[in-house]
Amino acid sequence: MNKSTFRSDLRSTTVAALLLAAAVAALPVGCSRSTEPEKTVIQNTGSDTMVNLAQAWAEEYAKVDPSVSVEVSGGGSGTGIAALENGTVDITNSSRTVEPREVELAKKNTGKEPREFVVGYDALAVYVHKTNPMEEITLEQLAGVYAEGGLITQWSQLEVKMPEGAEEIIRVSRQSNSGTYAYFREAILGKGRDFKLGSRDMHGSKDVVELVSKTPGAIGYSGMGYATSEVKMLRIARRAGEAGVAPTAENTLNQTYPIARPLFMYTLGEPTGAVRAYLDWVRSDAGQKIVVTSGYVPVPKTGARP
Amino acid sequence: MRSRRRWERATEAGIELLIRLCGVSAIVFVFGIFFFVFREGSGFLFHGFNTWEFFTSPEWYPTSENHVRYGVLALIAGSASVTALAMVLAVPFGIGAAIFVSEFCGPGLRETLKITIELLAAIPSVVWGFIGLTVMNPLIMKITGAPIGLSVLNGGLILALMSVPIIVSIGEDALKAVPDSYREAALALGVTRWQLVYRVLLPAAKNGLLAAVLLGVGRAVGETMAVLMATGHSVTIPTSVLDSVRTLTATIAAELGEAAVGSEHYQVLFIIGVLLFSITFVVNLTADLIVRGTRAR
């Protein structure tokens, strides 16, 4: 056998070996689960608006206390409160307060009263382009602009003089399963009403502000934390004739700003042990930092509740 | 010596098998993907799905509180309008470039052009979308005076730029496949170069060129990220090229992430996936059959 066949032989063997190795590497590695110490599980369910925030807390808390696992699920504030009434959840997230009827039901079923914790605030700002002369808008006007069947399509209908070519109101909205979309729908359009089709539906709070900043005729809603110098936040008046309120952390906290709401966590009775520790951490500086990064308003440090 | 032979034969067979598996895997993947997409949407498709509303209603309210409506007419109109505009722009450019590269330009320029066109094809679609959002949007607003530049026009331009490379390279192959004897015969009859192209090459290569266009269409229909960013993502049946629209692909991309797994909304998005899959499948199959027709002749 001469040298060259030997070499080609070697090469094909190498290729075969490589392919084999690749195939073996692709096989799933056998399950070798180490015996971990028993984890304390906190069931956390409720508000869809808060589900990302709650998830962010849970992930961060896994680093703070690895022995506790917080399991977060959504389903809506109503679902979470129903679970609280039946005593099947440790912490309920809710973007509304528990009604007296629900408190009674919880007492009857479990013998304990729901305990409320404010864990942050959610405020929506209405943005327009910085060159737009408009300064404030009423809730009714917003509904006319955004709601299905609403008749406001031109800036002139809002008595705003816009430059040539920007008379049409360019509505900027969110994709239909965003929590912000749902809250705006409930707070501005009213229960059961839908948005007018044909809005530009952005896929994130930041994208809304970005598009408004590029479009002179645009109006959009997004968390107030996303404001830039290229856009203007409108003051919001509850009804025509009332003074508009600017979206600031202060106005959010004293409840004068109409499209803001506190975010709650509820427990059954006074929390103890791991649940207490988790709630304390959520309301600590470390936990409240996550409120800010998630685009919400943190609870003021003085502890003063509105 | 003999054992070496046997070993050689065994490795040969092993490698052959592996390569065969790699080849066949494409078929398995395509059918697997179709099966799983279909399965995800099938629960709702067979129970309570309103096909009539789906295809004829322009009202897309997947998360409405008291009146959920799954009409994709506006989304189909969005996809169709953007694709149609893209083709109106890309076909003359693409076929023209293919003719130039294949028939008129010198070898040096040809290489440069081909490399540049391939580079155009290599730009990621999210970059195209970014260009649409940040460069074309203000430009369109300034030139046309439209209140917003995210529109059919913007998406169509972007998609045209994305489809041109495909049309050029496949179109060029089709023109190259025309035997030189055709050219020689035509030139011997004293035709000009333009007559050669128009009367001889284009009729001879028409199937290949049509396939090039159809593959461009397939590319445009299936494109997601660029149109999501450039068209304005608005549920509207467009009445002019300056209207914002939303495409089928962009709807899936924007909503699937937040739809609850297994919910009606989630399943409807998968049904849209099946619809898209069917559209691109028909387009690609047509292109393939046409190419095959050319080869068989």
Structure in words:
The complex is a heterodimer of chains A (306) and B (297). Chain A is α/β, with parallel strands linked by helices and 306 residues long. Chain A has 10 helices and 11 strands. In chain A, the strands form 2 sheets. In chain A, strands 1, 2, 3, 4, 6, 7, 8, 9 and 11 form a 9-stranded mixed sheet that branches. Chain A has a two-stranded parallel sheet with strand order 5-10. In chain A, α3 (77-85) runs parallel beside α4. In chain A, 41% of the residues are buried. In chain B, 77% of the residues lie in helices and 1% in strands. The mean pLDDT of chain B is 90. Chain B contains 12 helices and 2 strands. Chain B has a two-stranded antiparallel sheet. In chain B, α3 (73-104) packs parallel to α6, α5 (125-144) crosses α6 and α11 crosses α12. Chain B has helices at residues 2-46, 51-56, 73-104, 107-122, 125-144, 152-176, 180-188, 193-204, 206-222, 225-230, 248-255, 264-296; strands at 60-61, 69-70. Chains A and B meet through α1, α6 and β7 of A and α1, β1 and α5 of B.
Query: Radius of gyration of chain A in whole Å, from Cα?
Result: 27 Å
Structural class of chain A, please? alpha/beta
Extract low-pLDDT stretches of chain B. Answer: none
Percent range for β-strand residues of chain A: 15-25%
Structural class of chain B: mainly alpha
Q: What level of helicity do the residues of chain A show? A: 25-40%
Report on the biggest sheet of chain A.
9 strands, mixed
Count of discrete alpha- or pi-helical segments spanning 4 or more residues of chain B:
12
Kindly, what is the distance between the CA atoms of the first and last residues of chain B, rounded to a whole number of angstroms?
Answer: 50 Å
Assembly category: heterodimer
Q: Main interface pair?
A: A-B, 38 and 41 residues
Largest sheet of chain B: 2 strands, antiparallel
Q: So what's the overall shape of chain B?
A: globular
Q: State which percent range the strand residues of chain B make up.
A: under 5%
What is the overall pLDDT average of chain B? 90
Query: Strand tally of chain B, please?
Result: 2
Helix content of chain B: over 70%
Discrete helix count of chain A: 10
N-to-C terminal Cα separation of chain A, in Å?
93 Å
Radius of gyration of chain B: 24 Å
